[in-house]
Design brief:
This protein is of the alpha/beta class and 334 residues long. The chain has 14 helices and twelve strands. A seven-stranded parallel sheet has the order 3-2-1-7-8-9-10, sandwiched between helices. Strand 8, helix 11 and strand 9 form a beta-alpha-beta unit. The longest helix has 15 residues.
């Protein structure tokens, strides 16, 4: 694991995304910089988060809660408590952490203030910010002419079919960003997009008013952390160039100019498990990426030791990110 660094010269890092990929990278990064801001999508409408969203009219807490847990500096019992899911009754499947955040949301009157209060309770490293307080729905237009509303519904409509998502957008369109998100991007030394579900975790942040423009205007080093595998119900058959094109289509060309890609071999047994689900490693054409203005950067950041699942290794990913930052920002002190 990378040595924890607390000196003032550690880079100010902004991580933009959602889902399990974002919390994974945060677990590694909190050991290399105390100056981390996680900007989290609030478009989720499934699972326990979806229930709370529907019943309480609040933004979905799940992805935010995962990021808070990843950056928390608490006893193991508290972390286990936040992740605990009820097994019976009307709360079956709901996590205690989601309920904790829902209670704070009711007490505070705004979701970002509730997240701030929970951050204090957990003594997190850095900050976690929902990208907006607005009650947004994700909408997708498909290349077969269909329009589907809702993150879960989009994945279900796409799963197992050859149709592709043409574009996604929010309702209401261009909701206001939390001011702290724009401020963090403006002050950042390093901006990371991903890893995470392309259309339902990363891109929704770019659709919030001011976020994409703030990234373009920033003089920070900007890196897209490529997913390890394609995703059933979202990016089947996508190459690295397809991922980059989708991000540029929604956030503007030149949104970033580096892409961090895994080069650690994945065992055949793991590949076979993913193949049965319609997923595969993402094909990379370095020359084609260069024509798009994106430099491919490779590092061994995959972990396949957890029951055959292929995930990013938090420590290896953090180390690769910092190594890349040092190389592409040689004039910055670190």
């Amino acid at each position: 694991m990378a040595e924890r660094i607390n000196r003032p010269s550690a880079p100010r890092i902004v991580v933009i995304g959602g889902g399990t990929g974002q919390s994974t990278i945060l677990r590694g990064l909190k050991n290399v910089s105390p100056s981390i801001t996680a900007i989290v999508s609030v478009a989720d409408n499934g699972g326990g988060s979806g229930v709370l969203r529907q019943e309480l009219g609040m933004p979905p807490p799940g992805d935010v809660r995962n990021c808070l847990q990843a950056l928390a500096n608490t006893e193991p019992t508290m972390e286990a408590l936040l992740a605990y899911r009820f097994k019976e009754g009307t709360l079956k499947g709901q996590s205690f952490g989601n309920l904790f955040l829902a209670a704070l949301n009711d007490m505070c009157g705004s979701f970002d203030e509730a997240v701030s209060r929970m951050s204090d309770v957990l003594a997190i490293t850095g900050r976690v910010l929902p990208v907006t307080n607005a009650d947004v729905q994700l909408i997708a237009d498909f290349d077969d002419g269909s329009t589907v509303v809702g993150e879960c519904e989009i994945a279900e409509y796409k799963r197992g079919e050859q149709r592709r998502i043409r574009r996604v957008y929010l309702s209401p369109e261009r909701p206001a960003a939390i001011p702290g998100c724009l401020e963090a991007i403006a002050r950042a030394d390093l901006i990371l997009l991903g890893p995470g579900s392309l259309y339902t975790s990363v891109i929704p942040n770019l659709l919030v008013d001011g976020i994409a423009r703030a990234i373009h205007d920033s003089d920070a080093a900007k890196v897209y952390v490529m997913n390890l595998m394609t995703q059933d119900g979202e990016t089947e058959g996508f190459t690295a160039c397809d991922h980059v094109k989708a991000l540029f289509d929604h956030g503007g060309e030149g949104l970033f100019d580096h892409c961090l890609i895994n080069n650690k071999p994945i065992p055949p047994a793991a590949l076979e498990l993913y193949r049965r689900e319609g997923a595969a490693p993402i094909a990379v054409d370095v020359t084609a990426l260069a024509r798009m203005g994106v430099r491919a950067e490779f590092a061994p950041v995959a972990d396949h030791t957890r029951g055959g699942l292929v995930r990013h290794d938090p420590a290896a990913l953090a180390e690769a990110v910092i190594d890349l930052y040092r190389r592409i920002s040689p004039t910055r002190i670190y």
